[in-house]
From TrEMBL:
Domain of life where this protein originates: Eukaryota
Key words of the record: Membrane, Transmembrane, Transmembrane helix, Transport
Protein name: Solute carrier family 25 member 44-like
BP GO terms, sorted: branched-chain amino acid catabolic process
Compartment annotation: Membrane
UniProt source species: Xyrichtys novacula (Pearly razorfish)
Per-repeat ranges for Solcar: 18-100, 107-211, 221-303
UniProt topology in membrane: Multi-pass membrane protein
Length: 315
């Protein structure tokens, strides 16, 4: 029983870093392309007042598809691909902090919690400006009346479209209105959302994986257990941190400066149910993300094992 319970964890020092980063970029890009429509829908649901635009996740999906086409579900995607940088920063920080904390504690929960929170702090410092821009682009189309910035219509008529033309349009408007600080609007709200989310996700992921290993047959592949544990951890973390995620989205899209006042207004106008806005879309997007990330990440680490360690590991 004891042997069955231990799922092997590949640590940082076991990896061939060149393979790890090469495969990692491809994996991250695939995940983001897969779940981006759900991220866009979640943002619009969180920013809308009540149900003024959409009644729910699936209503939003079909309305956007019908009025804006498939391209409407990928508004802002090109600029969002720059989060590949933050993705690599995240996994590097996570693995390095795990290695550092292991010098002081062998408890996997402690290592995961500290490493997850630290990784999110580093990643969000890179991601927030990209998010601010991509969220403004997400809100164009049906949701443009809910945001401060709109694309100049005259820039799209009679002129050839430029690469990142819409992005530059939005960037110039943000800078003109708020200066450099505008690109870090909602930074604190993002930290209050994603640091707890990451700090909760990793310990619950390992917890669920260990519990499942106790229930599963002894010959059940560890990858299946990990692929099941990932969505469970994602749903748990999403539910815990969704209220702050709603506040973060409104601060960044509507240009608010006070987290507390945004929270109070949300409660005043929409009650406690307002704190659950976009939760179903968030879970829907986080479930495939978690499966692909866990399967991809664990496979990535196995493929990136240093050659001399390959034969010593059994899965």
């Amino acid at each position: 029983m004891q042997q069955k319970r231990n799922i092997q964890i590949i640590e940082w020092e076991d990896l061939d870093k060149r393979k790890f980063y090469s495969f990692g970029v491809f994996m991250t890009m695939t995940i983001r392309a897969t779940v981006y429509p759900a991220t866009l829908i979640r943002t619009r649901l969180q920013v809308q007042r009540g149900k003024s635009l959409y009644s729910g996740t699936f209503d939003a999906f079909f309305k956007i598809l019908r009025t804006e086409g498939v391209r409407g579900l990928y508004r802002g995607f090109m600029v969002n691909t720059f989060t590949l940088i933050s993705g690599q920063a995240y996994i590097t920080t996570y693995e390095l902090v795990r290695k550092y904390v292991s010098q002081y504690s062998k408890d996997n929960t402690v290592k995961s919690l500290v490493a997850g929170g630290s990784a999110s702090l580093v990643a969000q410092s890179i991601t927030v400006p990209i998010d601010v821009i991509s969220q403004q682009l997400m809100m164009q189309g049906q949701g443009e009346h809910l945001t401060r910035f709109r694309l100049n219509s005259n820039s799209e008529k009679g002129k050839p479209k430029k690469v990142f033309g819409q992005t530059r349009n939005i960037v110039s408007q943000i800078f003109a209105a708020d200066g450099f600080r505008g690109f870090y609007r909602g930074y604190v709200a993002s930290l209050l959302t994603y640091i707890p989310n990451s700090a909760v996700w990793w310990p619950f992921y390992h917890f669920y994986a260990e519990q499942l290993s106790n229930l599963a047959p002894s010959d059940c592949p560890h990858l299946i257990l990990q692929a099941t544990a990932g969505p469970l951890a994602a749903a748990t973390a999403s539910t815990v941190t969704n209220p702050m995620d709603v506040v973060r989205a409104r601060v960044q899209v509507e240009g608010r400066s006070s987290i507390i006042e945004t929270f109070r207004q949300l409660i005043r106008e929409e009650g406690m149910w307002g704190l659950t806005k976009g939760l179903s879309a968030r879970i829907i997007s986080s479930t495939p993300t978690a499966i692909v990330m866990v399967v991809g990440y664990e496979t990535l680490k196995k493929l990136s094992l240093r050659p001399e360690l390959v034969d010593s590991r059994h899965w």
